[in-house]
Amino acid sequence: MKRIITVFVAIALLVVCFASCGNTGKTNYAANNTEFYIGCSGPLTGDASVYGQAVKNSAQMAVDEINAAGGLNGVMFKFVMTDDVHKAENVSTNYTTMFESGMQIALGCVTTNPCLEFKTLSHEDNLFFITPSASSDSIVEYDNAYQMCFADGNQGKVAAEYVNGIFAGKTIGMLYRSDDAYSTGIREQFLANLDKSITVVEAGFSGGVVASFSSQINTLKPYDFIFMPIYYAPAAQFMTEAKNDVSPKATYYGCDGLDGIDTSIEGFDISTIPQEVSFLSHFNSKATEGASAEFIGKYVAKYGAETLNQFGASAYDCIYSIFEALKNCDVDVTSSPSEICEALKAVFQSADFSFDGVTGTGITWTKDGFVNKSAVKYIVKEAD
Fold first, then answer.
1. Domain of 62?
2. Quick count: other Cβ atoms within 10 Å of Cβ 226?
3. Is residue 201 in a domain?
């Protein structure tokens, strides 16, 4: 008799568990949602805060517009962003807080290292995310992850193609950060795709704050083209220290990490840098027509120009691409993250789905989560 009762109780407990946990073994914290909940973790304070603020502002602007137009069949959206200070160790707490508050979809993280932590957590819950700016190729390791930004491999490859067309048979310089996944990822792909006739002289550094770049400047000053797959803060420091040593006719060329270098660093005046400053981009912050110009006008009117950059434009597109995809999904506001993830994956992987936004038209995604769209060289400041 005791054995029969024990078996009955065990079966009853299993039934309760499956009913409450769903197919991921997790409680559906969204079961009582009245709005679709989109979350994000990013640097709202610290050295990379200009990126986080741009993403927060732009994503919220998109959500406000969607809600003002009636939401999705009358259901509104809400966007929540938590501060990770560009540190991976802060992501777990941020993620758990949002997930247990009903997060169903996410923009992942703003920067790469934190997003590597986010991808693992979201994979365990089968939560769909599309990051505006975390660009490491390994961000999309699992099938719940997508990028609106160019992956590092693609940035490195496109940068190499640009250099191949101009500097065949010549020597160029490169400044990179050796302990940063963003910088090393781009560097590896850049070198792998570079014409064999081109010689690269490299100068590395580590850590978020560098006392002086004198050694790196001494290494790189002979070259008229210096590739900089780094973020804007150390780049600005290098440029400031090097402006009288590097040729005024030289070009500093980076990737999306240089976005915001002309507006986001207190005390840094880019007009005092004699060299050209440019970077690979999918957004022209000085556009005067088209979707980019419309976005710029709305953003500046609402938030000012200080945090206007391609990270924000990309986040704006992330929200709208999610919204457009949800129109084709058989889910509702109380659906679990896993249910919504499966529905969104089916749409994003469909050959019939493409998206027109601020950062490109006819945007599609590979089955691996990488984005397909055009890139351009954006000149922030021309050489004197």
1. 32-150+292-373
2. 26
3. yes
Is residue 76 located within the same domain as residue 132? Answer: yes
Cβ-count burial of 75 within 10 angstroms (0-12 exposed, 13-18 middle, 19+ buried)? middle
According to DSSP, residue 378 is labeled: E
Is 276 contained in some domain? yes
Give the separation between CA 146 and CA 366, rounded to whole angstroms: 9
Residue 17 in any domain: the answer is no
Distance CA 105, CA 343 (A): 11
Predicted TM-score (pTM) of this structure: 0.78
Same domain, residue pair 161 and 266? yes
Q: How many domains does the chain have?
A: 2
Maximum C-alpha span of the chain: 92
Question: In angstroms, rounded to a whole number, what is the distance separating the alpha carbons of residues 247 and 261?
Answer: 20
Task: Encode pLDDT of 36-49 as tens digits.
Answer: 999 999 999 998 99
Q: What is the CATH number of the domain that holds 326?
A: 3.40.50.2300
CA atoms within 13 A on the CB side of 156: 24
d(CA 383, CA 189): 27
Question: Last residue of a domain, which of 246, 281, 316?
Answer: 281
Beta bridge partners of 376: 281
The strand pairing partners of 205, in sequence order, are: 177
Specify the pairing of strand 36-42 against strand 77-83: parallel
Task: Give the confidence band of 27 by pLDDT, cuts at 50, 70, 90.
Answer: very high
248 and 362, same domain (yes or no): no
For the chain, the 3-state helix, strand and coil shares in percent, each to the nearest 5, are 45, 20, 40
In a domain, 37, yes or no: yes
pLDDT in tens, 133-157: 998 999 999 999 999 999 988 899 9
Query: How does residue 25 score in pLDDT terms, banded at 50, 70 and 90?
Result: low
Question: Average pLDDT, stretch 116-137?
Answer: 97
